[in-house]
Backbone:
């Protein structure tokens, strides 16, 4: 999104801005690396500056680093608005929901707008899929949180002489439990295929921005808690996972570890908004947490 805040470190690239805090996360990791470089450490440490978090592709590529370097324990943090400033927040088990982008393409046949009966228009089938989504995501059918968000509906073209014959429904499906994401996907596919057959439409599915659930390991979360207390930081227990997804979940499928949060403050602008800017004050907290997690004083 565009940079609208006039700051010395503002983005100079039109339409590209630092609105999630990954610049601050990278600064934290660099600060931690400087501490290790100057003071040394008793164990081998890999500093992973990962790209492309927002699409989920970065962690998929960097899992090769985890395997090649034989990493056996991994920690990361995210700044977070809406929670107490400079307080370390932790959660056992699922920290972030699984999600994926789902496109349902439906192709019929064209007709003159004055004779729609001679063509096959996907509008009605797509409308029925949308209408069915509240039933497909009804919470009483699932153990954890389940969401399906309509992202875009693109049917036909701005040509008033031709009836629509191609359409795409784009959704983001999101669940607290990854197994239930697969179940929801299958149910949506089934209804789309049924409606496609009923209306004489070709149906195709496409997927992108796929994120696994991020599930913290109990032993690792306990270590985060202990380090926070030893360092004199307040620890706050989160009661539910964040709905947004993190590709960090790919790592926690391979090795033990945990993902924790450092608060920007309850009233600090949310991430991914025009007003947001990373709070540099929490960098030191992040550095000290990482030092404690590797046994440095």
Residues:
């Amino acid at each position: 999104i565009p940079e609208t805040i006039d700051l010395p470190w503002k983005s100079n690239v039109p339409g590209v801005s630092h609105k999630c805090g990954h610049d601050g996360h990278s600064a934290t990791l660099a600060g931690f690396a400087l501490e290790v470089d100057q003071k040394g450490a008793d164990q081998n440490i890999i500093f992973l500056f990962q790209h492309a978090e927002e699409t989920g592709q970065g962690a998929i590529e960097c899992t090769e680093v985890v395997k090649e370097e034989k990493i056996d324990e991994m920690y990361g943090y995210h700044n977070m608005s809406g929670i107490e400033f400079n307080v370390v927040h932790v959660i056992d088990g699922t920290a972030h929901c699984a999600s994926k982008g789902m496109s349902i393409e439906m192709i019929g046949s064209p007709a003159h707008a004055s004779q729609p009966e001679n063509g096959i228009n996907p509008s009605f089938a797509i409308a029925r899929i949308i209408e069915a989504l509240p039933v497909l995501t009804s919470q009483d059918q699932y153990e954890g949180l389940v969401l399906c968000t309509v992202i875009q509906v693109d049917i036909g073209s701005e040509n008033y002489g031709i009836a629509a014959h191609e359409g795409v429904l784009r959704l983001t499906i999101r669940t607290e439990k990854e197994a239930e994401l697969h179940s929801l996907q299958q149910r949506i596919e089934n209804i789309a295929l049924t409606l496609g057959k009923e209306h004489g439409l070709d149906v195709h599915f496409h997927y992108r921005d796929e994120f696994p659930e991020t599930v913290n390991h109990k032993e690792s979360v306990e270590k985060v808690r202990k380090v926070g207390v030893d360092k004199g930081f307040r620890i706050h227990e989160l009661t539910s996972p964040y709905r947004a997804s993190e590709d960090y979940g790919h790592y926690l499928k391979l090795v033990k570890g945990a993902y924790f949060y450092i608060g920007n403050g309850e009233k600090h602008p949310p991430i991914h908004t025009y007003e947001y800017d990373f709070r540099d004050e929490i960098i030191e907290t992040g550095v000290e947490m990482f030092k404690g997690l590797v046994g440095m004083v």
